[in-house]
Amino acid sequence: AKAEKLKGEETYYTKVIAAAHNSIGLLRAEQQDFREASAQFALAAKWNPNQEGLNYNLGLANYKAELYKEAIPALEKELKIKPDNIAIKQLLGLSYFMTADYARSSTLLSEVVAVKTQEAALYYPLALSLLKDGKLEAANRVIEQMVAVGVKSPQLHILFSQAHYERGEVAKALEELRTALSLDDKVRLAHFYMGLIHLKAGKFQDAAREFEQELALNPNDFQAKYHLAFVVLAQQETDRGIALMREIVREQPDFADARYELGKALLQKGDVKGSVESLEIAARLKPNQAHVHYQLGRAYIAAGRKAEGESQLEISKDLKERARTKIN
Questions:
Q1: Cβ neighbours of residue 130 under 8 Å, at least 6 residues apart?
Q2: Which entry of 10, 58, 120, 253 is 20 to 30 Å from 44 by CA?
């Protein structure tokens, strides 16, 4: 009986502490201090993970703090509990969009837009997600809906740009992006997509300029930072490129492409140990990428680990052969 009483008291005080952290989190959110709000909600979850609405609070705080990747697990948990909740679907879909998970983003946002047909702000991430996921017909239908409901925004011109680019109309794509920037010189992603177009055309200086402008507007855009680092490395500015890639993997430790490019640059610089460490992580994150195993093999050989290096080169060769077989 005594043990049951103690257990009951422990449960009571656990819930009290969790509720206190949740209340502090709500207060911090009201004060627009979303990172501290997130920290308080996370503490509440440690004490009482089943507290009603806590996962949504945590997900929303992380989203508002632009910690989109961190927002996703809490929102996924909340959606399992409330699978028909449109607000959760919307926030989770936007979080997927901000982390470039376009397939999941388009799935959820399609469900949201079907209910919130007049919420013009949702059409843009949905249409762009569909475009990025290769669903051009579906994307065009959403763009037509945007026009039908009277959406007039720079984001609409960004969508037109992407549609043109998918059809190989590069000049028209660039013109639409310039139009978007003329309407709002701070619109998100316009400089980024201009940078991508220049990058694919081999215009590295122009690409770097656009990625830098995107980062000036959106300092937490890790894709813009990654592509800037990629261009900088391509222009043989190795030290600056390495510094940028290090920033990215600190912020996004599971970003395999950044791990690969960092490892490759470190090997070029002569930092064999650092190269091996980075490329080993890249290989774990993307085990089916031939180029990753090839670079890891080179790094192992440079480190004097010849047998492991040759093994990685063989893996790379096998993966390339399998890829050729699939194509044929």
A1: 102, 106, 136, 138, 139, 142
A2: 253
Q: Is the pLDDT of residue 120 over 80?
A: no
> In this structure, are residues 249 and 233 in contact, taking their beta carbons and an 8 Å threshold?
no
Distance (Å) of CA 225 to CA 38, 144, 161: 25, 32, 22
- Phi and psi torsions of 254, nearest 5°: -100, 15
The residue type found at 321 is E
Q: In whole angstroms, how far apart are CA 301 and each of 198, 290, 292, 298?
A: 36, 17, 14, 5
Nearest to 123 by CA among 136, 140, 135, 137: 140
At which residue do the structure tokens 């607000």 appear? 87
Residues 83, 22: Cα–Cα separation, whole Å: 23
- Whole-angstrom Cα distance, residue 22 to residue 254? 29
Residue whose structure tokens are 């990629």 = 230
What amino acid occupies position 16? V
**Number of Cβ within a 10 Å radius of residue 63:** 22
pLDDT tens readout for residues 256-310: 999 999 999 999 999 999 999 999 999 999 999 999 999 999 999 999 999 999 9
Sequence-distant (6+) residues with CB within 8 A of 179 are 154, 157
